[in-house]
Design a protein that fits this description.
It contains eight helices and ten strands. It has about 260 residues and is of the alpha+beta class. The radius of gyration is 22 Å and the shape is globular. The termini are far apart.
Length: about 260
């Protein structure tokens, strides 16, 4: 099938060679055929995340300092007492296109997609952005764009030491007491998928921390779905809500075409 493509711009538009139009039965059959490949991709992505959780760690021995809204802080401070830290190096500084009104357009698109941080925090994970812009400019930009993630000012070689002196990138760290380890790094098109809670957790050393995951022995894991909550309702160390356990059990059983458990 071919159709003209009109997008409101002036001039002759190229002809789009679109797929064929079929019956509902044929459409469902085509979808089912593609779904086989999509499920294979999902399983492959899960397997890759499991392999990522087994990557070796690199000890961070240098001392780094950042400027925050309340003054100077260390890399350890960025964790906010959690075990996992994700650091996105965003380009907002003199010399970057858009300065001083905007950050890099690509980095801004990443920032626009960041999900509510309460869900990451509930999985013992902190996400922060870092740039070389002064705090006054960062706070002004966050207010203008409606961003709420912690955003710190770089003051030393942290960005170049971890592969993001130029362009952009996401580093992941793990804290064991006062010791910090670099566990993962992603940049270029790898950053495209970032923003959602699941994708962030999948690049952390502990993963989503759910029972279905293939993780090394001893890693923290809780029943699937049970830790989920409204972003304004998380309470640290609180047991799963009984009613939500019943609802999620029934939903999971329906997905798997199995009768729900008797939760009376």
């Amino acid at each position: 099938m071919t159709t003209s493509a009109e997008n409101g711009s002036k001039g002759t538009q190229p002809v789009m060679h679109t797929p064929s139009v079929v019956s509902s039965q044929e459409w469902e059959a085509a979808r089912a055929q593609l779904l086989v490949k999509e499920k294979a991709l999902t399983r492959a992505r899960d397997a890759l995340a499991a392999e990522r959780r087994r990557m070796p760690w690199m000890a961070v021995t240098a001392t780094y300092a950042f400027e925050g809204p309340s003054g100077k802080v260390s890399l350890l401070d960025l964790f906010e007492d959690r075990h996992q830290l994700i650091v996105y190096r965003a380009f907002f500084e003199p010399g970057v296109f858009g300065w001083p009104d905007h950050a890099c357009r690509g980095c801004s698109m990443v920032a626009d997609q960041v999900a509510h941080l309460a869900h990451l925090n509930a999985r013992d994970t902190t996400l922060v952005f870092v740039s070389r812009a002064p705090q006054a400019d960062i706070e002004r930009l966050k207010a203008r764009m409606g961003w709420t993630m912690p955003w710190y000012t770089l003051t030393d070689s942290f960005d170049t030491d971890f592969g993001v002196g130029e362009w952009h990138g996401t580093n992941v760290f793990y804290r064991d007491g006062g010791r910090v380890y670099r566990t993962y790094f992603i940049n270029n098109r790898g950053d495209e998928q970032m923003g959602g809670t699941w994708n962030y957790l999948d690049i952390t050393p502990l993963g989503r921390q759910e029972l279905w995951e293939d993780s090394p022995e001893g890693y923290p894991q809780t029943p699937t779905y049970k830790w989920w909550n409204w972003h304004d309702s998380y309470v640290a160390d609180a047991p799963p809500d009984k009613k939500w356990v019943e609802v999620s059990d029934a939903g999971e059983a329906a997905f798997r075409n199995q009768p729900p458990k008797d939760t009376r």
